[in-house]
Amino acid sequence: MRRPDLLAFLLLVGCAPEMGNPASLVTQERIIGVRGDPAEAAPGDLVRYSSLVVSPSGTVEAQDLSWSLCNLRKPVAENTPVSQTCLTGDLVQSAQGGSVSIQTPSSACSNFGPLAPPSRSGTLRPSDPDATGGYYQPLRLDLGTEQAIFRERLSCGLAGASLVMSQEFRARYTANQNPTLVSLSVLVGETPVSLDSLPANQRIRLVAIWSPDSAESYPVFDPASQTIVDHREALWLSWFATAGAFEDSLTGRQENDPAASTENTWQSPATAEVVFLWLVLHDSRGGADFASYTLTVVP
Fold first, then answer.
1. Any idea which fold 10-298 has?
2. Is the dihedral of CA 289, 239, 292, 148 positive or negative?
3. Are residues 265 and 236 in contact, defined by beta-carbon separation less than 8 angstroms?
């Protein structure tokens, strides 16, 4: 299955796997997932954020995880999703813990959206939306030397649209909801096998299923043609484990593919051991969900 050619909304920085290991192999403590509830917030909204921190010993509660809002706009010259200063600068901590609640700044749509930002010189311009019409508030997560950037989708309205077009867009648009992972099937060939008795040194099929309503339809405004075009979310899944080897670190479905599942092949370890497995599901508007499993490999 081909990987979807998409920009992930979780940007992992300083938590890459050790040299020579694939991104899917967990060999050290890492931040691999963040979910915001709601998945799309207006300025002033309170968002509940949940993290997924993992290690070779399993899922980590990460009570020392620090969360900081970054309100720095990305300079035009920087070809990155967020300002490099968000990664390297000193930010004021907003909350601490594995799951936290943080209020979206009232200035978010000016800092990162279609509203003109305050400027003494008057030279700053509003931000451009991404391909889904979205704007995002960055947050930085710090856990020891590990660091990650997550971007919360903002509800900011349109730029460059007529009153009639803005009214039509609001009538058609529904704020993004997080996708939902439903189940994981494990098979050797076509035969289902139990998670607590997986054969060693075998190619094992893993089939992840999400709810049918996870891929939502949404409109995108094109200011050049002054038209609104409907799209359907793409969904992609990141795979992580403490042992074995995946055929792909990332699988998924493009927006024109209605299937509510994706599969991967995992080569189980050659010896008996307990393996921790994590799935992180993303939609193309910034929503996320994740799940954890314990696999027992037997001789």
1. Immunoglobulin-like (2.60.40)
2. negative
3. no
